[in-house]
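User: Sequence in, structure out. Go.
Assistant: Echoing your sequence, followed by the structure tokens.
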Amino acid sequence: MSAAWHEALFRRCRSCQGLGLTDAASPHGSAVQCPECEGTGYVPTPELRALLIAGNDLITPLSREAAAIAASLSELSHRVDNAAYQLHAALDSISRRLRTCLP
């Protein structure tokens, strides 16, 4: 990503001044990863954050719908398997009956 693109999409983290670490010490005495930027030193600009939220608002319902479709397909597959099993059993029964009728 070019520097111009990076500057347009991200800003330096104010919490850690772009270092990616906080002054808060871990139990071991070392600096810890900045929770705001997750250690990258940069956070999305408000505009990029708005786009990410809008995208998430579009994707989340689609994900739910996809999950519902997958569940429906799973149920349909189960029903087809049941029907195939019943059909096989019925054909097997008919076949046995026909064998008893043949000389």
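User: And one key feature?
Assistant: Residues 1-44 form one domain.
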